[in-house]
Amino acid sequence: MSWHPQYRSSKFRHVYGKAASKDKCYDCVPITRNVHDNHFCAVNPSFIAVVTECAGGGAFLVIPIKQTGKLDPHYPKVCGHKGNVLDIKWNPFNDFVIASCSEDATVKIWDIPNQLLKRNITTPKKELLGHARRVGLIEWHPTADNILFSSGYDYKIMIWNLDVKDAVLSNPVKILDAHKDVVLSMSFNTDGSLLATACRDRKIRVLDPRAGTVLQEGSYKSHKVNKVLFLGNMKKLFSTGTSGWNNRQIALWDQNDLSVPLLEEDLDGSSGLLFPIYDCDTHMLYVVGK
User: Fold this and answer.
1) Domains within the chain, CATH numbers bracketed
2) Model-level pTM?
3) What is the per-residue burial (b if ≥16 Cβ within 10 Å, else e) of 207-220?
């Protein structure tokens, strides 16, 4: 008589990551030493972009995906910011356009050439001047082409329309002024009709970006939120942060009710931030520790 276990065995149970060989890795990339809590890296089907250590300003590298192995120390950079680059994001509609924001309170849009970079790119396609203080986050709208959201240390989220012909823009289409402290994280739902934010005042907010109104606001005391993320079109939010005892913690929320999390779990007592990354195609959620 054969014995069948009551539970379904997980297909991920004995899966282990294995580091690629050196010639398949990106070697000798001088990653920034900035302590700002961000990814400092952005990838699309053509390129990998990495914020790099740079004297007297801010710069990032754009390396073709296929160009693995050791990076030439004199490899050209994209440089034009007067302060450290704090965030970079590829345009979801165009693999050859990338946005960057910096401590110099500007956002710049860059055209990346199709072939290998031969020299430094110093002139941006567009420059966005609206924030009074450094800009820490940028996010492209997922369904409307050429709409960019930027969030700064002036507590404002600005919406920019990049379809206009001017090279320098100083008037955003809209300013979302719902936060009383620095926005730590921004995330769109699948169709871009809702924007979730995590703020330094420990609250998660769900906003209607068109109207600029706050639809939901959660101030759950025992979860100090750092990063928040929409889980595709599941109408749920995922956040990482710390508990009242300063343990690293994850929480799952219903987007229509932020009063109490659906699930809350302590992970460990380490101090580094947790970055959530969600893959809509496989419904896998990755949590990366800094």
Assistant:
1) 23-177 (2.130.10.10), 178-289 (2.130.10.10)
2) 0.89
3) bebeeeeeebebeb
